[in-house]
Amino acid sequence: MNNTRLPAALTSIEGLENAMEDLTDDQWPRAMGVLRRELRTMDEFRLFSSSYPIELQTRVLSIVQRFAYYDPNVGDISDISTWCLERWLLLLNGNSREVGVLRGLGEYWNLRGQQILHRIRANSSSSGDSSEADRGAPRAFLNRVHTQAHVEARGLLQPSADYYQRAVTLAQGNDTLDGDLLSEAAESHINIGSVTSGRESQGYFQRAIRYLRAASLFDDYELSEDLQRYLDDYGQYVD
């Protein structure tokens, strides 16, 4: 077996990531063709077996799943999305206490939930029912949490919050916690909170605020404008 093919495939994946933001609509089909070719190569060389570093495996999967959900508001590229989930679960089976794996699965489910979340928010806005809850306010109550769309959203976003919470707990324990992970975890909790009601939603929002506060304490880290605004607006409600 040609031992240069896997390194070439990994280099190709990195190149696709670097070019992602600049790809035009006409270039996407070719890029997806290249990506699928490299996925076949990685499977041929069993990249996600235990013989390869977990850091490499999680790095590659994180790149690929961003292609699967390059516009999460309109859905996924189903074959690539499925490929990612299968390999995340394969890694989880032998690395259940690996922060990178838990974080990657948190990101996967958060991305997967964006389409239905976008639809819920769009429907709320068009019906004139856009409230603090749609924006994830800690003291808000989302009135229509029992619609089919909200039930579907919770089914996708709950795993994201759970995986991120586990990742944060493990990172705290091994002193690898950083602002990026905390911000991602906060966003996932804001999302699940916005499609949940009552005391349960308050728990998600409060944890999101605590994650954002912790992230803001890192000297070399700055929250995004949206998350900083969220913390400024709603942090006063959380001890």
UniProtKB/TrEMBL annotation:
Name of this chain's protein: Uncharacterized protein
Organism encoding this protein: Microthyrium microscopicum
